[in-house]
Design goal:
The complex is a heterodimer of chains A (about 500) and B (about 325). Chain A has helices at about 5-20, 60-65, 115-125, 135, 160-165, 175-190, 235-240, 255-260, 290-295, 300-310, 335-345, 370-385, 395-400, 425-430, 440-445, 455-475; strands spanning about 35-40, 70-75, 80, 85-90, 95-100, 140-145, 150-155, 195-200, 205-210, 225-230, 245-250, 265-280, 315, 355-360, 385-390, 410-415, 475-490, 490-495, 505-510. With about 500 residues, chain A is α+β, with helices and mostly antiparallel strands. Chain A folds into 3 domains: about 5-50 and about 180-270 and about 485-510, D-Maltodextrin-Binding Protein, domain 2; about 70-175, Dipeptide-binding Protein, Domain 1 (Dipeptide-binding Protein, domain 1, Alpha-Beta Complex); about 270-485, Dipeptide-binding Protein, domain 3, CATH 3.10.105.10. In chain A, the strands form 4 sheets. In chain A, strands 1, 8, 9, 10, 11, 12, 13, 14, 15, 16 and 17 form an 11-stranded mixed sheet that branches. Chain A has a 4-stranded antiparallel sheet with strand order 4-5-7-6, covered by helices on one side. Chain A has a two-stranded antiparallel sheet with strand order 2-3. In chain A, a hairpin with a 3-residue loop joins strand 8 and strand 9. The longest helix of chain A has 18 residues, at about 455-475. Chain A starts with 5 loop residues before the first helix and ends with a strand. Chain B is mainly alpha-helical. Chain B folds into 2 domains: about 1-60, no CATH class; about 75-325, MetI-like (MetI-like fold, Orthogonal Bundle). Chain B is about 75% helix and about 0% strand. Chain B contains 13 helices and no strands. The longest helix of chain B has about 40 residues, at about 235-270. The chains are: A alpha+beta (about 500), B mainly alpha (about 325). At the A-B interface, helix 1, strand 1, helix 4, helix 6 and strand 8 of A face helix 2, helix 3, helix 7, helix 9 and helix 12 of B.
């Protein structure tokens, strides 16, 4: 090839730009068969069982598109058949059994077998696996395979074992392929049994997927799916507004309302399994029950949702959202500033002599997080609580929470895509959990027996009782269930997913 | 000297990361994680030993080119940097080129019209460009050319529908060299807005400094002599004044170029451009210690190389400095 002159170089640059703008022919795929999603987070890793991305609820949308879970989950959080067609415990809860779906093939064409399932479960349970919830997977072991049935010995009974098979890190990976290519090889070229196969992946840029022709649930709705990783919300709005992307999510509610009025767009705003809450730590001044309850009764959650979140949110009074199994609508913590002032007065505090405390919050991590805390601090001030706001990064929150060093009050959001009370009230309130802030024996006494409770009805009833007790004691201040805005072209139809995972298989042509 | 600087950077970054709040293990533990899970993860990522031992282990490996494995990406830091750096190099180089051309042209035109009222207008406009930081330009460009008049692609580095294999990560250069001009055009279109966002503030700086230097040069004796000989104003500026005025501008451009690399962090984020700036934000959010250490070391190395290059160029352009 000859040398390029300066003039040619400039001409190529300018001509190329123009050509790319004018030549739709440079597209390889038919636009009608391609779904482009402006996605809100990047995908750091392809291993859905290891590291931070494995426990990121948003990324599950991508993992569920390429891999399959042991057990599937419907958009309303109900469990359904996945790679397991049936499952359960024996009568005395000493064994589990699982039936593996027949006829499923990996993206490389090789058959998915019970050995893959056992290998995935054993790998997840190994202490050196890097699985963030390895201890849960290690509660069952000594697996045996008989045809398509797997049995395993229960080493420590956990009633949520099967529910986790539809949740974080509950994915079946290809044993033979993984052992052949190794961890880094798998990162370069991952394969699963999911509806779409990885065609091209450019980290921090885009992921292009092709429909899996052998998918066991049938042909996926689009031939090609593109996830564009657009972490900036303004850019995501611009992506759909300019027509560069077909769907996007988690945009500011103001933008959602504006775009919904546009004739070319439709939208879904669905309450998802993610709640906003304020952790209360068992340190002064919250060791005083009056102060705790005053802090809870002073907050007007409905006003926060209406004025700050434009009505997009569902008020909650326990850590259970309405779609969760242990949700009890009869548990109410009323907005009652007079009662709050009375409670504070009983402890010697008033507007003139307020109780002082610190509240920590993120700023911009969740919609209007800082603004919500500002509003709450204003509501508290009206009844006699003088709170200083400290803004911190989410990384600091995790570190402080794990070390039990959070401020007396700390804002956080809590996801629970299986809707089980152990994953909300249990882990958020049990003192031995690294995630709890209120650590006292009275709560432990109630939650402790529920971890291994084999009677499901009794277990759920037990958690409802714990939630009522926690509300009465003011051990936590639940605020609201978040609503996820999804905006898309009118030519599409999107099925909302309460788990918050925007899966391409839930998007169809209208 | 460069080695000592890099060593200093490595020590400072290593210590800072362990002092500032944010524990990578705390970031990744799931709701069902137990204390044993947390201990196992610490051991898994080599974060359980004493700090001096952790540093020595890292340093020993880094000396043979092993910067560790990214906690979030599960790949070697070196391979990740190798994948991302070319994108930022192409972007920064384009921005620098555009900034020099725009800034240089503005300075020459303003000098040419220095006794005309238009000169004040150019100065005022330049002031506006100088006052707006790169991320504001980025947002303005998104609204202007991404939404209002959607001429340019908003995000990414290349259209996801283009299925073309690349041998290197220098996508633009490779496309030009291999004659795939439509692909090169697509990449250039994707780079246009981030390039402009980075280039416009730098162009304003270059224009101001170069214009000042040209103004000073234009009253020197050698320019007067050339003018008496009948040389046109444009020729005077380009052939006589510019060569003498370019020295200080180049030195300043070198310094500004390092800021330009820093500016890629925000601009790449807004345009979802897959470079080391975008990568750095992800690494910091996730407290990916090995990746942050690798990134900072590489930023340090880039700054050192830019400064060396500027020093050499200034010396090359100014014969008097060669004998200092």
């Amino acid at each position: 090839m000859g040398a390029i002159s300066r003039r040619q170089f400039v001409a190529v640059g300018a001509g190329g730009v123009i050509a790319s703008m004018l030549m739709p022919g440079s597209r390889v795929f038919a636009a009608g068969d391609t779904l482009t999603i402006a996605f809100n987070v990047d995908l750091p890793s392809w291993d859905p069982t290891v590291g931070a991305s494995a426990v990121n609820p948003t990324i599950q949308a991508i993992y569920r598109t390429v891999f399959d879970q042991y057990i599937g989950q419907k958009p309303n959080l109900a469990l359904e058949q996945g790679l397991l067609t049936d499952w359960g415990w024996n009568k005395d809860r000493s064994q589990v059994w699982m039936d593996v779906r027949k006829g499923v093939v990996w993206h490389d064409g090789s058959p998915m077998t019970p050995e893959d399932v056992v290998w995935s479960l054993e790998r997840a349970g190994k202490p050196d696996s890097g699985n963030p919830i390895q201890s849960l997977w290690s509660t069952v072991g000594k697996f045996k395979i008989d045809g398509n049935r797997i049995t395993g010995q229960v080493l420590s009974f956990d009633p949520t074992y099967f529910k986790w098979m539809a949740f974080l890190t509950g994915y079946v990976l290809p044993k033979t392929y993984y052992e052949k290519v190794g961890a880094q090889g798998f990162e370069r070229k991952p394969i699963g049994t999911g509806p779409y196969m990885v065609d091209e992946y450019q980290a921090n840029s885009f992921l292009r997927l092709r429909a899996n022709p052998n998918y066991w649930r049938g042909k996926p709705p689009f031939g090609t799916v593109v996830f564009k990783f657009v972490t900036d919300a303004t850019s995501r709005v611009a992506e759909v507004e300019s027509g560069s992307s077909d769907v996007t999510l988690d945009i500011p509610y103001e933008e959602y309302d504006r775009l919904r009025k546009h004739p070319g767009f439709a939208g879904e705003a669905t309450p998802i399994s993610d709640i906003g809450m304020i952790f209360i730590t068992n340190v002064p001044p919250f060791l005083d029950k009056n102060v705790r309850l005053a802090a809870c009764h002073a907050v007007d959650k409905d006003a926060i949702i209406k004025r700050l979140l434009r009505g997009y949110g569902t008020r909650i009074d326990t850590l259970e959202a309405p779609q969760y199994e242990a949700y009890d609508p009869t548990i109410k913590v009323t907005h009652d500033p007079k009662l709050a002032a009375k409670l504070l007065k009983a402890s010697g505090f008033s507007r003139e002599n307020p109780v002082k405390l610190k509240i920590q919050t993120t700023r911009g991590f969740k919609p209007k997080d800082y603004e919500m805390i500002q509003a709450i601090v204003g509501m508290w001030r009206n009844v006699g609580i003088d709170a200083d706001i400290e803004v911190y990064e989410i990384a600091k929150h995790f570190e402080l929470r794990m070390a039990h060093k959070l401020a007396p009050a700390a804002f956080y959001n809590w996801g629970n895509a299986i809707g089980d009370p152990s994953t909300s009230t249990g882990f958020a309130m049990f003192s031995k959990s690294p995630h709890s802030a209120w650590k006292t024996a009275d709560v432990d006494k109630m939650i402790g027996p529920l971890w291994g409770e084999p009677d499901e009805k009794k277990r759920i009833a037990g958690y409802k009782a714990v939630d009522r007790y926690i509300a009465e004691q003011g051990y936590v201040l639940p605020l609201l269930q978040y609503v996820q805005p999804v905006i898309y072209k009118k030519s599409l139809r999107v099925t909302p997913n309460v788990s918050g995972a925007l899966q391409p298989v839930l998007i169809h042509k209208a | 000297m460069a080695v000592i600087t890099l060593f200093g950077v490595a020590v400072v970054v290593f210590c800072l990361l362990r002092v500032v709040p944010g524990d990578p293990v705390a970031m990744m533990v799931g709701p069902a994680a137990s204390a044993a899970d947390i201990a196992a993860l610490r051991a898994h990522y080599g974060l359980d030993g004493p700090l001096p031992l952790q540093f020595l282990t890292w340093l020993k490996a880094a000396l043979v080119g092993d910067f560790g494995t990214s906690i979030t990406r599960h790949q070697s830091v070196l391979s990740i940097l190798g994948a991302y750096l070319p994108a930022t190099i192409e972007l920064a180089f384009s921005a620098l080129l555009v900034a020099i051309l725009l800034g240089g042209a503005t300075a020459v035109v303003a000098t040419l019209l220095r006794q005309h009222r238009t000169s004040a207008a150019i100065d005022a406009l330049n002031g506006v460009f100088l006052a707006l930081p790169d991320f504001i330009w980025a947002l303005i460009l998104v609204l202007a050319f991404g939404v209002a008049v959607p001429l340019l692609p908003l995000t990414g580095r290349i259209d996801p529908s283009i299925d073309v294999p690349f041998a290197t990560n220098f996508l633009l250069m490779e496309s030009i060299i291999t004659g795939r001009f439509a692909v090169a055009g697509n990449i250039a279109a994707h780079m246009a807005m981030p390039t402009l966002a980075l280039a416009l503030p730098l162009a304003a700086v270059i224009a101001r400094v170069l214009r000042q230097a040209l103004n000073e040069a234009m009253v020197q004796d050698y320019v007067l002599l050339a003018r008496i000989k009948g040389m046109s104003e444009l020729r005077l500026i380009l052939h006589e004044a510019l060569r003498n005025a370019v020295g200080p501008t180049l030195a300043l451009t070198g310094v500004q170029a390092t800021f330009l690399i820093g500016g890629t962090v925000v601009v790449e984020r807004i345009f979802a451009y897959p470079g080391i700036g975008n990568l750095a934000i992800e690494a910091v959010i996730n407290r990916d210690f090995p990746l942050i250490q690798g990134l900072v070391l590489m930023f340090g190395l880039i700054f050192i190389l830019i400064n060396i290059a500027v020093d050499l160029t200034v010396v090359a352009l100014n014969p008097r400095l060669r004998h200092v």
